[in-house]
Specification:
Layout: H1 3-25, E1 29-31, E2 34-35, E3 40-48, E4 55-61, E5 67-71, E6 78-83, E7 89-98, E8 103-111, E9 117-121, E10 123-127, E11 132-135, E12 146-150, H2 153-161, H3 168-185, H4 190-193
Parallel strand pairs: 2-12
Antiparallel strand pairs: 1-3, 3-8, 4-7, 4-10, 5-8, 6-7, 9-12, 10-11
Helix pairs in contact: 1-3
């Protein structure tokens, strides 16, 4: 293998080690991840800013079978409540300024559906430069929508107890990158010079 190939491989591994954690942990997420039918629940939308420009707008659309009743105040953020023709709350838009490498938590209270289901939370994050990220994709995608399992107590507790994605993937990638970089930068030994 040539040194340039090894250097490129090392660079790829370093990039992967930086990207993987953001893919695993940088999503707009609604907590709790599990609740029970008919519960009156306090939900919190946690939105991180992973860009070098401020987040200026966050929009969420609520699942049809959820009944949102109120919102918490968030200093520095203005709230617009979205309703349908029957005055039912169907979404919310917060505008403000979220600096890079910060997060904001946007709370609301809702009555859960009466039967077991999975609530999916589409979220739209807009940045100061005009870029918009739609957190609406399926689980495992680059921009997944957050979800909450609504189930009887035992099933909801099992979801909460499930382990979170491990940061070990990024640590392993970083370790491989360091090893590859060391191999790429080492001097060739004297036995290979004569060949």
């Amino acid at each position: 293998m040539t040194r340039s190939f090894l250097a490129r491989a090392a660079l790829c591994l370093v990039v992967l080690s930086l990207v993987v954690p953001s893919l695993l942990f940088g999503h707009a997420v609604v907590y709790p991840k599990a609740s029970t039918p008919s519960a009156y629940e306090k939900y919190v939308l946690r939105v991180p800013n992973e860009k070098d420009v401020a987040t200026t707008r966050v929009e969420i659309r609520f699942p049809a079978d959820l009944r949102v009743s109120s919102f918490g105040d968030v200093p520095g953020w203005q709230l617009e409540v979205l309703t349908d023709s029957a005055k039912r709350i169907i979404g919310a838009v917060w505008t403000g300024t979220l600096a890079p490498h910060r997060f904001v938590e946007l709370p609301f209270v809702a009555a859960n559906p009466k039967t077991a289901t999975t609530l999916v939370w589409p979220v739209f994050q807009t940045y100061g430069a005009g870029e918009k990220v739609e957190w609406t994709g399926p689980a495992g995608s680059k921009t997944p929508a957050s979800s909450t399992v609504i189930a009887p107590v035992a099933a909801a507790e099992a979801v909460v107890a499930a382990p979170a994605p491990s940061p070990m993937i990024s640590y392993a990638a970083l370790g491989l990158a360091v090893v590859a970089l060391g191999l790429a930068l080492r001097r060739p030994d004297s036995s290979s010079r004569g060949a």
